[in-house]
Structure formats: structure tokens, C-alpha cells
Write a structure and sequence with these properties.
alpha/beta; Rossmann fold
Length: about 300
């Protein structure tokens, strides 16, 4: 019997065959070890994080996230909503707060939702999985499950933008959040507290429209990790993970660099540290192999 249950919003990028499907696998493995049960919201939809600002207006954008919240309240009453995608979490939490503050907008939203037989009560906390781990479970509980400490692996904690502003983890600095550093240390790895690019934007919004600008930003993120002797980068954001990992070949061609820096999710680190296999940790989903983690998982 799971000790904790959450209403789970996986988001588009975690679906099978999508860009961060490996994230979902490692999260499920991590949650199995932590006795956390994720109850997927039935018939969930896109949060509109990308297209919602491009057109369509404010009400449709907010209503898309509101529908997910209303479905969660209907099917999983009393359970906090947890998202693994930073953009999904940010969009859903923004919608909840905006609709809480603006009752006329909430009324319009519920008029739209009524067409689908739904009503938003908007009483449910919206959490990122990192909040669940750190604020609900705590570092000591996370440490207690470690079977294979990440000894000798030096890891740069790359928080990025969306899990840092405007909400972030309770008590953390916006300029220098330390929860990934603490998590790395909790798992027995070597953190890099003075990694100066931990909140640098990866340029995700520019990756297709102005790739040269995005890739210049990514270059700085990777270069700083190398400068600190990192073996790999860890992040809580699927957009950050993808951008910082998959464009390294293009960056190498443009700048004459030789980057081959693995970029993994915190859940991947945890799955390995908890003694699970490389497959369970979804290490086979890496574009750039995380050889240090592969070797540890194989022991």
C-alpha cells in the first residue's frame, strides 16, 4: 500500500515515444521505491504552455489547465496534483492562481467547462515533483532508500528557469537555488554548489525560431559544467534536458567544441542510487550516454 497518493498530470512530452518518455519511466521507478502512488488524471489534455501564448486568447489557455484541475477534483478528490514537466506545472499553477484571484474569469471558465459537464472548485494544490520530494518527503527519507551511492560522480545541478521563477521550491533563492545540489549530496554524489549557470535559461522558446541564440545559451551552460569538472548535468525540466543534450553536435560544429556532456533527470539519478537497473532508470533514453551511471547501475 502506497504511503502517499497524488493526482498525476504527466503532460504531453512524457507520452510514449515523446521527447521525455524516459523521464516518465524513471519517475515511475523512483516513486515505486519511495512508495508514492501516482494516479493519472483521466482524459487529461495539453496545458497550452507553448501554443497558448501564440494565439487563442487568455480564457482558452487558462481553461485548458482548469479542465485538468477539474478532472482531478472529480476523479481524485483530496489529492494534490503533481506534474513532472516544468512547463505543465507552471501553466497549471498559474491558471489556478489567476482563477482564484479573478472571480469573473473563474465564472467564464466554469461556463466553458460546463459544456463538458465539469466545474472547477479550484481548491487543489499544484506541485512539481521536486516539491513532493523535498517538501513532502524530505531529504532524510530520500537518503534512507539509497543502495548504490553516487560516489565519485561530480554533478552540476541545472535548475533552469521554470522550476525557479515565479514559484520555485519553498525557501530557495531565485538566484542560487540549492535543492539539486542537496539532492546530489543526499544520493552520495559530488555537487557543484558554485555552478554559476544553474538558473541560466536554455533558450527553449528560441530553439526553432532563432536556434543560433538558443545554442549560444546552451553552450554557456555546458561549458561551465566542464569548467567545474562535472561528469554530467542533472535537471528537473524536460525542455532543459532536451535542449542541453540534443544540440551538442550542432554546437560542436559551430564553435569547434568537443562537448559530450550527459544531461539526466533527478529521477534517473535516484533510480540508479536506489539500486534499480539501467532500464528502470531509463538510461537507454539518453542521446549522450551517462556512462558513470550505466556503470554504477550494472554493479
Amino acid at each position: 500500500m502506497a504511503k502517499r497518493e497524488y493526482s498525476f498530470y504527466p503532460g504531453c512530452s512524457s507520452q510514449k515515444g515523446a521527447s521525455s518518455s524516459n523521464y516518465l519511466i524513471s519517475v515511475q521507478t523512483m516513486c515505486e521505491e519511495l512508495e508514492v502512488q501516482l494516479n493519472e488524471i483521466p482524459d487529461w489534455n495539453c496545458c497550452a504552455a507553448s501554443i497558448g501564448y501564440a494565439g487563442g486568447g487568455e480564457l482558452p489557455r487558462l481553461t485548458l489547465s482548469a479542465r485538468n484541475i477539474a478532472l482531478s477534483e472529480q476523479h481524485h478528490p483530496g489529492q494534490d496534483i503533481v506534474a513532472t514537466c516544468a512547463a505543465c506545472w507552471l501553466s497549471t499553477r498559474e491558471a489556478a492562481e489567476r482563477l482564484h484571484e479573478d472571480q469573473s474569469l473563474l465564472a467564464e471558465c466554469n461556463t466553458a467547462l460546463a459544456e463538458a459537464g465539469l466545474k472547477l472548485r479550484n481548491e487543489t494544490p499544484i506541485k512539481h515533483m521536486a516539491e513532493v520530494l523535498i517538501e513532502d518527503l524530505g531529504y532524510e527519507a530520500l537518503k534512507a532508500r539509497v543502495k548504490k551511492p553516487l560516489e565519485g560522480i561530480k554533478i552540476a545541478g541545472y535548475v533552469g528557469c521554470q522550476t525557479n521563477r515565479p514559484f520555485g521550491i519553498a525557501g530557495e533563492s531565485y538566484e542560487n537555488p540549492k535543492y539539486l545540489d542537496k539532492l546530489v549530496e543526499t544520493l552520495g554524489g559530488d555537487s557543484i554548489p558554485d555552478y554559476e549557470k544553474k538558473v541560466q535559461c536554455c533558450g527553449g522558446a528560441l530553439a526553432f525560431s532563432e536556434p543560433e541564440k538558443s545554442q549560444e545559451m546552451v553552450k554557456g551552460i555546458i561549458e561551465a559544467a566542464y569548467d567545474h569538472g562535472a561528469d554530467l548535468i542533472v535537471t528537473p525540466c524536460p525542455v532543459c534536458q532536451m535542449n542541453v543534450e540534443v544540440y551538442q553536435d550542432q554546437i560542436n560544429q559551430t564553435y569547434g567544441t568537443k562537448f559530450q556532456m550527459p544531461v539526466v533527470y533527478y529521477s534517473t539519478l535516484m533510480a540508479v542510487a536506489y539500486g534499480r537497473s539501467a532500464k528502470d532508470a531509463a538510461l537507454n533514453g539518453q542521446i549522450i550516454p551517462a556512462k558513470a551511471l550505466d556503470a554504477l547501475a550494472a554493479k
